[in-house]
Design a protein that fits this description.
heterodimer, A: D-Maltodextrin-Binding Protein, domain 2, six-stranded mixed sheet, four-stranded mixed sheet, B: mainly alpha, MetI-like fold, 14 helices, flat
Chain lengths: 542, 323
């Protein structure tokens, strides 16, 4: 009996010692630096577990927020920045020699955090490695025709097309790293402790857990006047803790376990007043995301093929304001869209706001449905959405609107992997709700992503084969004039191949004292662009 | 006995191979792939196919399966994550301590609470105490652990602020996961212990022990309990195996970086190697635990030990006859 009791006690003691031994990196960090100064530190939330710190890794949530903070690019950008407005990072200047070719000069004193010198050959190596990594957007890579070093610190970069914004895109979205370091490092060093050319490096890395970033003390760019916004170092330490569940993120904020977190649209009301302003004790940042669009399947066997009336009937049947509210975007924060795009994108014509854009009219919808050759109740359509509480709620409002005019609708929601597979399968959906991105903040880039026939096996993203649409698209993206953009917008609006529903919003909530969250060129709320109150101290107890 | 254990260890190999083939085949036919997720929706089909080809994902089924099994068997290589490029085996190892902490604390809690409750209920069979404990056990089995986890968070984290709601920084972070994880198994063990003990308590040797004037405490703990242990060990072993395989829901709710969340992330991003590696790990854990349980049977019950020894001898004699 005594032996058994001893065994039980030993087991308990073993367990306690194991648990007591699992101290944290972050928890053990002091809040005072070597010089006795209080460290500026914040804790933010990473919503996924798949972070990879290497320069050429695939995109993940935390990586979107921190990639250019750790890995420098040729230039820095803010949303919609033009070539003249780019901020020098590793490159000092850019000069366009012709419509597609740029001469780029680099700073001649760039080093990474391990002390390796960066020159034009490292830049060429970085662009070539990105191209073969399989982790960068093929559209971005396809925009680069060639890159060559013309000297130790000079480069010639040629874009593959004349589309507006292409050069801005390709000089701000490829990480620059030292060839010597990269080729000498093994995979775990690349992932967990990379040599960085940006202002922050990884201090500690727990796979699937907390990642701690700290500022690079000997950051190569010492000339403050030449520092891009993203290269500034307002914080000493940034802790990124993983919280995958939406409700847990809210609890973590309310329990003061984190300073800043992304918040689901279904939970944001806890941080907002009725009028859409931030509630006491909170700062809420609403980032206008891409517009949610309703795509009609234009393939050969679809009911929408050559049936403009049917597409328009559905467009008029939808109350986009109700859909937006259903999607968790309240008045005062979000907006309904008046084109396939939104007002935050470069090239948007504000005149479109004054015009009719399939404003809710169920009676007209019924007339058009009859003209299209369908009786009420005759038609049942499958709509495909991503599994996302906001979008599926918005789809439910669309379903209700269509039911009012006599169209049945079935909602099929899929995870990202299935959605990506089914979106190219014309037999899987009749309508699709999806937000197409614009990589460079221009409306024409969004249009290219959705409609460029060169990018799809069959017509556009929704299988529409229309040569005139393609001509107008090329003109709009290359000329980028008000006339060419208007021409595309009005043609697309008349044809109603796709209609804009509402602008989705990404919410971040932060503790009071985080005054502003700046955005980089890809609309990501990068921590180095946060503005904190002078006396702000992290709420997270150490 | 050692021969029996060696035989069982050898048997684990074909089991793991079969699991490897099954999970590979299932993942092969599941729609979606890691490349289209990595590239996003601005990539064209042509571009996606080109990268899939470069990564060998467009090779025929048999070629991919052969490559996978070859790496697994000859190099003990589970491959690397398509998403992070990190070796799967390294990731599993780095996450194992967290999963172990949850599993160990949960199973200890389960045994420390569940077995005494079951014994007490059996001793006091058909009394109010018995009915109450069985009602509570039924409740514990019926409540889903994710719901319990949320209730625990609301009470101990949000209201009382005694424990953090998520993370894995220190022992405090494992208290709520261990409780939420063990409530269901406490109830299950309690019910199992009660049932086993009831059977044994009515046996002749227990009646004899009582008649001889052996103290009741010794009758229960010294005579009845050891004979009721086999089904209890089976249930405990099964629960521990499940917990070591990664408590997917608990790890997700409490944002703990363990095997369960690794598997879940792998499934969501169709990271084939991650899913295959994690499932193989779970299968191996289960197989080893079942072996340990079988060995434990032998220590608890001498009749079973005799059987194992006998089966070892038979094998030896058959071998001699064949010669």
């Amino acid at each position: 009996m005594k032996k058994r009791l001893m065994a039980i006690l030993l087991t308990v003691a073993l367990m306690c010692s194991m648990l007591a031994g699992c101290g944290s990196d972050a928890g053990d960090e002091g809040k005072v630096g070597e010089d006795g100064e209080k460290l500026k530190e914040i804790t933010l939330v990473n919503t996924t577990q798949d972070y990879d710190g290497s320069p050429f890794a695939g995109v993940s949530w935390l990586r979107l927020l921190t990639r250019w903070m750790t890995h420098g690019t040729l230039f820095g950008a803010f949303p919609g920045a033009t070539l003249d407005e780019l901020q020098p990072r590793i490159a000092k200047s850019i000069t366009m020699v012709d419509e597609v070719t740029a001469e780029i000069e680099l700073f001649d004193y760039v080093t990474d955090s391990a002390g390796n010198k960066i020159d034009a050959h490292d830049v060429v190596f970085s662009y070539e490695t990105a191209a073969t990594s399989g982790n960068f957007s093929p559209k971005l890579l396809g925009s680069i025709a060639s890159i060559e070093a013309t000297g130790d610190y000079t480069l010639r970069l040629t874009a593959a097309n004349k589309s507006k914004g292409t050069m801005e895109l390709i000089v701000t979205n490829i990480p620059i790293t030292s060839q010597e370091w990269y080729e000498g490092a093994d995979e775990s060093e690349r992932t967990m402790n990379p040599a960085v050319t940006g202002p922050y490096k990884i201090r500690s890395f727990t796979s699937g857990g907390t990642i701690v970033f700290e500022k690079v003390e000997n950051f190569w760019q010492t000339d403050e006047s030449m520092k891009a916004d993203i290269d500034k170092q307002p914080l000493d330490v940034i802790n990124a803790v993983v919280i995958t569940e939406g409700s847990q993120r809210v609890i973590a904020l309310e329990n003061q376990e984190v300073d800043v977190s992304f918040v689901d649209t279904s939970d944001i009301h806890r941080f907002l007043n009725d009028d859409g302003t931030a509630a006491d004790g909170w700062m809420v940042k609403a980032i206008q995301d891409m517009p949610q669009l309703l795509f009609f399947n234009g393939s050969e066997n679809s009911v929408f093929k050559d049936n403009e009336e049917l597409r328009q009937a559905i467009a008029y049947a939808i109350d986009s304001q109700a859909v937006r509210l259903g999607g968790g975007v309240p008045d005062g924060i979000g907006e309904n869209v008046r084109t396939v795009g939104n007002s935050t994108l470069g090239g948007y014509n504000t005149q479109w706001d004054e015009e009719d854009y399939y404003d809710y009219d169920p009676e007209k919808a019924k007339e058009l449905l009859a003209k299209a050759g369908y009786e009420p109740g005759e038609l049942t359509l499958k709509v495909m959405t991503l599994t996302n509480s906001g979008i599926t709620s918005a789809a439910a409002v669309v379903q209700s609107n269509l039911s009012d005019v006599g169209i049945n609708m079935e909602i099929n929601s899929y995870d990202q992997a299935l959605f990506n597979t089914y979106m190219y399968d014309s037999t899987q959906w009749d309508m699709m709700i999806y937000a197409v991105p614009s990589q460079n903040g221009l409306i024409t880039d969004l249009w290219l992503n959705a409609f460029d026939a060169r990018s799809f096996e069959q017509g556009t993203m929704n299988f529409v084969e229309d040569e005139h649409l393609q001509e107008l698209l090329v003109a709009a993206s290359e000329e980028f004039t008000e006339e060419s953009i208007d021409a595309f917008h009005y043609y697309l609006k008349d044809q109603a191949y796709v209609i804009g529903l509402y602008n989705s919003v990404q919410y971040y909530a932060a503790q009071d004292g985080v005054e502003e969250m700046g955005l980089d060129g890809m609309q990501a709320a990068v921590p180095t662009l946060y503005k904190l109150a002078d006396d702000y101290e992290t709420v997270v107890s150490q | 006995m050692i021969k029996y254990i060696l035989k069982r260890i050898v048997l684990i190999i074909p089991i793991l191979l079969a699991v490897g083939i099954m999970i590979f085949t299932l993942m092969y036919f599941v729609p979606g792939d890691p490349v289209s997720i990595a590239l996003g929706n601005s990539a064209t089909q042509e571009e996606i196919e080109a990268i899939k080809t470069s990564k060998g994902l467009n090779d025929p089924y048999m070629v991919q399966l052969g490559r996978y099994l070859g790496n697994l068997v000859f190099h003990l290589d589970m491959g690397t994550s398509y998403k992070t490029n990190m070796p799967v085996s390294m990731e599993l190892l780095s996450r194992f301590p967290n999963t172990m902490k949850i599993a160990l604390s949960s199973i200890v809690l389960t045994m420390l609470i569940g077995i005494p409750i079951g014994i007490r209920a059996a001793i006091k069979a058909n009394t109010f105490e018995d009915r109450l404990s069985m009602f509570v056990s039924l409740l514990g089995t019926a409540l889903p652990n994710f719901w319990m986890a949320l209730l625990l968070i609301l009470l101990f984290s949000v209201t009382l602020k005694w424990f953090p709601s998520n993370g894995d920084k220190s022992w405090k972070y494992f208290v709520l996961p261990a409780i939420s994880n063990s409530i269901g198994s406490i109830a299950m063990i309690a019910r199992q212990t009660r049932a086993s003990m009831l059977e044994v308590i009515r046996s002749d040797y227990v009646v004899t022990a009582r008649a001889k004037g052996v103290p009741e405490r010794k009758v229960i703990l010294g005579h009845a309990l050891p004979n009721a242990l086999i089904p209890i060990i089976t249930v405990c072993g099964g629960s521990f195996g499940m917990l070591l395989g990664g408590a997917i829901i608990t790890e997700s709710v409490f944002s703990i970086s363990g095997i369960g969340t690794y598997l879940l992330t792998g499934i969501n991003s169709r990271d084939y190697n991650v899913v295959q590696g994690s499932v193989l790990y779970i299968a191996a854990t289960f197989a080893v635990l079942m072996l340990i349980i079988d060995v434990l049977y032998a220590y608890v019950d001498p009749r079973i030990k005799a059987q194992y020894v006998q089966s070892g001898r038979k094998g030896k004699e058959n071998g001699k006859k064949d010669k």
